[in-house]
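Risk register update: the risk that structure generation would not scale has been downgraded. Supporting records follow, first protein first.
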Amino acid sequence: MSASGIFSALALDLSPLRASRSFRLLFAGRVVSLLGLGMLVVALPVQVYALTGTSLHVAGVNTTLGVAAFAGTLVAGVVADRTDRRRVILWSRSAAIMGFAALLVNSLAESPSVAAIYAVAAWDGLAGGFSVVALAAAVPSLVPRGQLPAVAALQAISLDLGAVVSP
C-alpha cells in the first residue's frame, strides 16, 4: 500500500459534516458545550477554593455538579424519547448559558456567594445531563445509518479536543 493510501485509510471521515447541515449544527453545539463544560469544571473548584480555602468545599461543589449531571442523564432519557429532542437540546443549552451568566454575576459581586456556586453547579449539572442525552439521541435521525461509525469517530475526537483545549 502506498503512503497516500495509508494516509487516506487513517484519515478522519468528515462526510457526515459535509452531508448534513443539521448534524453540522448539532456537532458545533456539542463542541461549544464541551468547551463550556471544560471551563466550568475548572472554574468552579478554583473559585470555591479561593473563597473558602478548603478542599472540602471543592469536593462538595464537584460532587454537586456530578450528582446533578447523573440525575439529568437519568431523567433526560425519558424526556428525550417522549418530546421533541431539538427542544430539549435548546432548553438545556439555554439553561446552561443562564447558569454561566449567574456564575459571572456572582463572581463580579463584592462578596461572591459559595451557596450560589453550589446552586449553579446543580443547575448546570442537570442541564448538562439533559443536553448530553438529547444530543446523543438526536444523531441517528440526522445522518444515514452507514455514516454512524464516522459520526462516532467525530464525536470521540470532539470529546478529546474539548478535554485538551479547555482549561
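Supporting record for the second protein:
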Amino acid sequence: MTANDLPVIAAVDGSSHSWEALDWAAQEAVRRGLPLLIVHVRPLTRRTDEESGLRESEELLDRAVLRTSTSAPGLATSTLAPLDFPSAALTSLSRDASMVVVGSRGLGGFRSLMIGSNSLATASMARCPVVVVHSGRTDEDEAEAAQTFPDVVAGVSADESSEAVLDFAFAAAASRPGARLRLVHGWTMFSSILSGGPVFDREAAAGAAERTLAELTAGLLEKYPLVDVVREPVSGSASRTLVTASATAALTVVGRRRGGESLGLGLSPVAQTTVTHALGPVAVVPC
C-alpha cells in the first residue's frame, strides 16, 4: 500500500457523534478514492469481560459496515477492534492512514464540553491529519449551510509550517467540485516587525501579509488550477474568523506543532481554539 492509498480511519463507539463522523469519513473516502477502515477501540477491562466486549464490538462494527454500505455503496471497507486506550490506539494506527476521523465527543463525554478528551488527545498526537466532526449545527444552521458556498477554510502561518496545511487544504478543495478555498492568515504589527516588514504603517503591513500568502500558495495554484482561492489577511488572531467560518464551511483546516506532543504542546493556540469551538468539521494537520 502506497502513501496515496492509505485508508481513511473512522473511529466509532456507538455514540451519535461517532455515527456522524463515520458518515463524514465514508463520503471523504469516496471523494478521494481511498478505502475506509472502521475502528472500534475496545476499552481495557478485566479478562472475564473480554469475550462479551469482543462480541459487542463485532455487533457495533457490523452496524457500522451496514450503515456505510447504504450511504456509500461500493466503498472498500474493513474493520478493526483493538484492545487499548482510544487515543493511544488511534495514534498508533495513524502512522498508516491518510487521515483519522473522530466525533467531537464519545459515549462518555459531558454535554457541556464542546470536544471530548479522546478526540482532543488524538488530534494532538496523531501522525496524520485528524478530522474532528462537530455536530453543533442546528436544523437552521444545516439549512443555511446547504445554501452557502461550500468553502474549505484554512488557517495559514507565514512560515514553512504552513506547507502541510496548504497541501491538505488544496487537496480537500480540489475533491469538492465548485468549492472555494479561503486562506486565513492572522497578522499583527509585532509579527510584521519580527518578519522584517513594515513597523508603523498598518496598511503596508496588511499588504506585506497579502504578498506572503501569495508567495506561499504560488506553487499550489499551478498544481490545482481549478481551485478558486481567496486570501484573507486578518489583523489580530485568526481564531475568531476560523470559528465563525466553520459554521458554514465544508471543512476548516488548521495546523499543529509536530514534536511538541510529549510536552503537551501538540496544538497551537489558534488550533486549540478552533477545534474546541468550531461548529463544523475541523482537520488538524501535523506541521
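Confidence is low (pLDDT under 50) at residues 108-114, 138-147, 260-265. On this basis the risk owner (M.S.) recommends closing the item.
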